[in-house]
Amino acid sequence: MLDFPYVKKRDADLSTNVTVKTNKLNVYYGSSHALKDINITLYDKTITAFIGPSGCGKSTLLRSINRMNDTIPGAKITGDIFIDGVNIQTESIQATALRKHVGMVFQKPNPFFKSIFENIAFALRIHGVSKKDIEAVVEESLKRVGLWDEVKDRLQDSALQLSGGQQQRLCIARTIAMNPSIILLDEPTSALDPISTEKIEQLLQELKRDFTIVIVTHNMHQAARISDYTAYFHLGNMVEIGHTEQIFTAPQQSRTHDYLSGKFG
Amino acid sequence: MKERGNTSLAEKLQTPARRIFWTEWRGRSITYVSVWIVILILLSLLWFITSKGLQPFLNGEITLSQFFSTNWSPQDNKFGSLYIMLGSFMVTIGATLISAPLGISAAIFMTEIAPKWGKKVLQPATEILVGIPSVVYGFIGLTLLVPFIGKLIGGIGFGLLSGILVLSIMILPTIISISVDAIEAVPQKYREGSYALGATRWQTIWKIVLKTALPGLMTAVVLGMARAFGEALAVQMVIGNVPNAPFHFFISIHTLTSMITQNMGNTVPGETFNQILWSMALVLLLMTLVFILVIRLITRRRDVS
Question: How far apart (Å, rounded) are the C-alpha atoms in residues A239 and A220?
Fold first, then answer.
């Protein structure tokens, strides 16, 4: 029996608008076949969690959605990824423009070696936000991640003086400052303490109203708590995807069941 | 094991291991003695140069204001060395202005643009450049550069510009290799963060990587300057060795180092000229201290986690 008493109940009003859809997506790193024939659909303004053991391909899929794999030498991608119906694998799509609309937050908080203010202003400047708007957007973004009251008196201090949890919220703030449609999070809380983790989980629930969120997590309990959909990956295959409540109470595949019950992983 | 069974654990614990004690003592003595020898050499050098350098001032043979004047004429016992010091500064600044942008750009290429090729070809190449002795650089400058400049501009070709060019080539590998280290030390997560925000490669390099590596890059430049300031042989071979005002590219000038190398054999220990050379050596030493201090200040401000 699976035992996830806190699993998120299925929302009645989940959107059926498709945001991301992949078609036979394969990713190779050199000779290793990291993702195999992935067909996945992600819906607008929902949280989808990717779970699975290390090396299962969940981060690779995440990094395909904003083409971060382009920066890895030797990475090769076949198949299609459609975002709002547009194939992002085509030549005419600029990766830099794509990443403005598909933001990403990483496992280790990575604020730049700059002030708190500049960390967000950098993102705005490279996308041509005018000087007079920058201040307002910085304030708004910091307020949305609940960091404003903690840092408003020291915006010019180095961002590296913040605690790990604050740094991660700053990274989320600088991502949403660009007003993306999709936010990808790659194990965003695995380097954080439980209190910071809880804050970020609450934040994601609020951000869900405006953004489509995809989160890779090593922690299946986190997936159960916060996500609407859960996809289970194993050795480069997507074994199963479904409503989180269904995956964590009655998975269809025995491999999913074994992973969730702690037989391996 | 059985025959040892009759000594209690308490007894075993109290038995000192003699051999361990002896090797510990020996190792510690060797390192202590070595460090004291180094400190002693350093202190005696500092003491020697300082006392020798201060001697002409203490003996009243020259005043500080005379030393820092422009009136240089040893035959009249006038040793105003300002132009010579300025000569050192001019070649150093000139060489740095050429080599800093060149070296840092090369380092960016080797680390960010073409890391494979940079690592395989360019890094060994810079290491070879570091290893070429300064007399060889000077010889090349004397044989190729000086006649070339002479032909191009007219005149003899010795002077400030030749000194600057030779030095800029000499300090280039220093600046490159330390800049490469500084840029490589920038954690990959900063680059990823920048790309993920939609920054281009150039924006990432310029605004994130270089900004983060700035203390290291400044250290590279200051170390290059220190090397330029202290280089003697190669400079002396191409600079012309006339204590003119060093404000023109194509006239012969002097630097502190070229003055010392040129005259240390031609002066008699004890005479004022010889003592003045020691004062120049002291100025060089103090400048080196300033460079080291600057590097310390730059690197201390760094609070990268």
Answer: 15
